[in-house]
Amino acid sequence: MSLKYKYFTFFLLFYFLTPLNIKSSEKNIYELISQDKNLSIFFNYLKNTGLDVVLKQKSPWNWTIFAPSNEAFKTVPKRLKTEILSNDFLSQNLLMDHILAKYKTSEEIEEFSKEVTISNKSIELYNSSDLFVKDMIVTEKDLIAKDGVVHVVNCIMFVQPSIQDSRLDEEVAKKFPITSCCMRKDNEVILWLSNLYKK
What's the pTM? Predict the structure, then answer.
């Protein structure tokens, strides 16, 4: 199956709930995730989609992964489980939205940083003590591996054009044309699938 991806930019606002505690590790990114009990569901999906093979290989770059916690997977809408997470191809695309082929700790993001995920979606990262509309919350930051860093997030990422979000007024939608949010509703699952297949 071939897809033409639409390139997105979205706002990922960091709201760190734990103190900065960056320590070096002898584990690689694969080992770090596989041994973290709070990321066991995420790790299983990495294995099911073949992304674990990518992470195990030595590469010329380091990784930054926004890994949904076990609790994040337990609170997803039923439709996300039945229509996306039950399909390895769609799951792979969804998880790739959470991965950067680049090393990015919280200390390296002062206020703003523009990056690209391995699914070719442009993202804008913000490090702030304030929350923006429908942002991702980082519950545990800077889990350091020798080939990357993991930031644990509290939900599954969803990128959407602001015009699709009825909760945003016109002024906010113009200022932030693309927003990120937690995928918590069935209509958001439908929109994600629709956006994925758009040419």
Answer: 0.78
